[in-house]
């Protein structure tokens, strides 16, 4: 029986690993164990509870004010002990966090094969998103099996010189997780979210937290959104505010004290997925949301200068609108007031998968580990 260990540390990783963990645990030819670094703690635990995941190893590295160096060093040292204890044949990491890079590096240092889920995404700017773009590229260097979600991701890897035989197009496991979650009966615990009139009002869901947007870009984005809400009496804005104190301060200054702008606490994955489903449109700088929302038929406006997920832009499910106040105001207003533009985006086909990515990945892992 081959041994596979999944390593993850943040909420987005946990969401996208959950369908894979389920399939690994169902496979009779694989002994699976999971290890969390807990790069995030509270938000990670929420997702573990939703999907019923009990980690076999928990490094519990999170501390207030942690730096990227702290995360890397603690993860490497902790993973070294776990690898010695379990002796995996393959370590599986997902995405672009510092945990991903540290997990891949720990596997490499200990002679363990590496599988990278969601491999090949590129923005073309090493410093945006930061440090995620670098984490993906650094992880790719030591990876044995590249699980690319799309043809574009595969082409990125081929251009960088990776062998075609080591690249597998699988779709994105975020779609697997989202279809699972949104198929369940659900009612918000929040009185506010339950009270919003999703049928007769246009509820804009916004997420904004990227490091490169903090400061003037974020001030301009928030100001533009406030202008839109003030000019459209049928619009409500819901913003789960990121825990970063700098983000919270800008949100309170630019978006606070308005009856139709709702600054709420960060949401667990389950309510957030269902809020996406109920919203009219989504304004975001998140990568994962760009993949998920098209499955639910929701147009996405991406408040970034570049994105490592160009497939959505090309397919028409998302539009890259930048961070300038005038651009954000114009593009949000267009979708609110032009039904033809709205329907064109809402009905575009999601390029990120069909909900069977995890099944494909585990089948490939089982085949490769039993033949090499």
From TrEMBL:
Pfam families membership: Epimerase_2 (PF02350)
Keywords tagged on the record: Isomerase
GO molecular function: UDP-N-acetylglucosamine 2-epimerase activity
Enzyme Commission number(s) from the entry: 5.1.3.14
Keyword Glycoprotein applies: no
Residues spanning the signal sequence: none
Occurrences of domain UDP-N-acetylglucosamine 2-epimerase (ranges): 22-365
Family in the record: Belongs to the UDP-N-acetylglucosamine 2-epimerase family.
NCBIfam families, per the entry: wecB
Protein's UniProt name: UDP-N-acetylglucosamine 2-epimerase (non-hydrolyzing)
Species per Swiss-Prot/TrEMBL record: Andreesenia angusta
Upper lineage: Bacteria, Bacillati, Bacillota, Tissierellia, Tissierellales
Gene expressing this chain: mnaA
């Amino acid at each position: 029986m081959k041994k596979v260990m999944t390593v993850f540390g943040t909420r987005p990783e946990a969401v996208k690993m959950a369908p894979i963990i389920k399939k690994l645990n169902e496979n009779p030819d694989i002994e699976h164990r999971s290890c969390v670094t807990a790069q995030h703690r509270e938000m990670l635990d929420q997702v573990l509870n939703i999907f019923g995941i009990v980690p076999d190893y928990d490094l519990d590295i999170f501390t207030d004010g942690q730096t990227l160096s702290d995360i890397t060093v603690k993860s490497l040292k902790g993973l070294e002990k776990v690898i010695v204890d379990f002796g995996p044949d393959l370590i599986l990491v997902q995405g672009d966090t510092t945990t991903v890079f540290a997990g891949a590096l720990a596997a490499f240092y200990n002679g363990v094969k590496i599988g990278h889920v969601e491999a090949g995404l590129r923005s073309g700017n090493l410093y945006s998103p930061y440090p995620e773009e670098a984490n993906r590229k650094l992880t790719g260097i030591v990876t044995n099996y590249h699980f690319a979600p799309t043809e574009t991701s595969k082409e990125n890897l081929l251009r960088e010189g990776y062998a075609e035989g080591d690249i597998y197009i699988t779709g994105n496991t975020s779609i697997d997780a989202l279809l699972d979650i949104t198929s369940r009966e659900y009612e918000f615990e929040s009185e506010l979210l339950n009270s919003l009139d999703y049928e007769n009002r246009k509820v804009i869901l916004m997420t904004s937290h990227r490091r490169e947007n903090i400061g003037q870009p974020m001030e301009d984005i928030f100001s533009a959104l406030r202008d839109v809400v003030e000019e459209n009496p049928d619009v409500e804005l819901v913003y789960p505010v990121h825990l970063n104190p700098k983000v919270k301060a800008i949100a309170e200054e630019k978006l606070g004290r308005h009856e139709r702008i709702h600054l709420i606490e960060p949401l667990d994955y389950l309510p957030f997925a269902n809020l996406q489903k109920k919203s009219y449109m989504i304004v975001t700088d998140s990568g994962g949301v760009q993949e998920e929302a098209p499955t639910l038929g929701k147009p996405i406006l991406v408040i970034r200068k570049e994105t490592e997920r160009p497939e959505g832009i090309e397919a028409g499910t998302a539009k890259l609108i930048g961070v300038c106040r005038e651009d954000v105001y114009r593009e949000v207003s267009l979708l609110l007031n032009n039904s033809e533009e709205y329907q064109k985006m809402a009905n575009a086909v999601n390029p990120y998968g069909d909900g069977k990515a995890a099944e494909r990945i585990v089948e490939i892992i089982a085949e490769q580990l039993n033949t090499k």
